[in-house]
Amino acid sequence: MNTRTTEERRHEIVRVARATGSVDVTALAAELGVAKETVRRDLRALEDHGLVRRTHGGAYPVESAGFETTLAFRATSHVPEKRRIASAAAELLGDAETVFIDEGFTPQLIAEALPRDRPLTVVTASLPVAGALAEAGDTSVLLLGGRVRSGTLATVDHWTTKMLAGFVVDLAYIGANGISREHGLTTPDPAVSEVKAQAVRAARRTVFAGAHTKFGAVSFCRFAEVGTLEAIVTSTLLPTAEAHRYSLLGPQVIRV
């Protein structure tokens, strides 16, 4: 007999979603000993509270002030989609000579996809990005100093933003934990938000690159509006109609 309260059951659903990256209605119903419709009702309530996003047959956790996935976790989810997105984003380089590359797995893939046969100066707060480009012949890497966050291996705080404030870059490749038409680009940590906001201010052009799961998700700290972006690069898993709604705010939306 199921003796859990509704609150306990929903807490458990969030815990499982955060631990595994997603939940399935059928599996949850069996595990919790309740009807599928009960689980669907729970997921609707959790979505209303901004804790999960529902998908066909399940849900995945939304990153928030209290929960953020690690770089290691991101490197295992939606990888083929992120590689396609990174490749398309790298093609937007144009004649840029100075580039900011954000922290995160998709920006790391963008760094690896950039051309190696021309001079390029890359500014980044990400240790993995700096490492990926350090031995690229014509690429000069400027790593922003500061406190290193363990989950993402990127620098933050006033040292980072002060150094970044001294630059004007041709193009910034930005990631986010969520992007929505109403709330713009968001991330859970205020220190990370400061770095991202400064990067957007420092750039002549800004490109957001992210998987379809980022869209409609809202996190704690807003750092940019959708209208400040030149382009959004995502996959065809973002519906055409939704992509069109984002394009009406200003950016070109590229789906690959």
TrEMBL record:
Organism (species): Streptomyces coelicoflavus
PROSITE patterns: HTH_DEOR_2
Protein origin, superkingdom: Bacteria
Transmembrane domains' residue ranges: none
UniProt keyword Protease, yes or no: no
Keyword Oxidoreductase: no
GO MF annotation, one: DNA-binding transcription factor activity
InterPro entries given in the database record: Carb_Metab_HTH_regulators, DeoR-like_C, DeoR_HTH, NagB/RpiA_transferase-like, WH-like_DNA-bd_sf, WH_DNA-bd_sf
Role played: Repressor of the lactose catabolism operon. Galactose-6-phosphate is the inducer.
Keywords: Repressor, Transcription, Transcription regulation
Entries under SUPFAM superfamilies matching the protein: NagB/RpiA/CoA transferase-like (SSF100950), Winged helix' DNA-binding domain (SSF46785)
Protein name according to UniProt: Lactose phosphotransferase system repressor
Chain ranges of the HTH deoR-type domain: 6-61
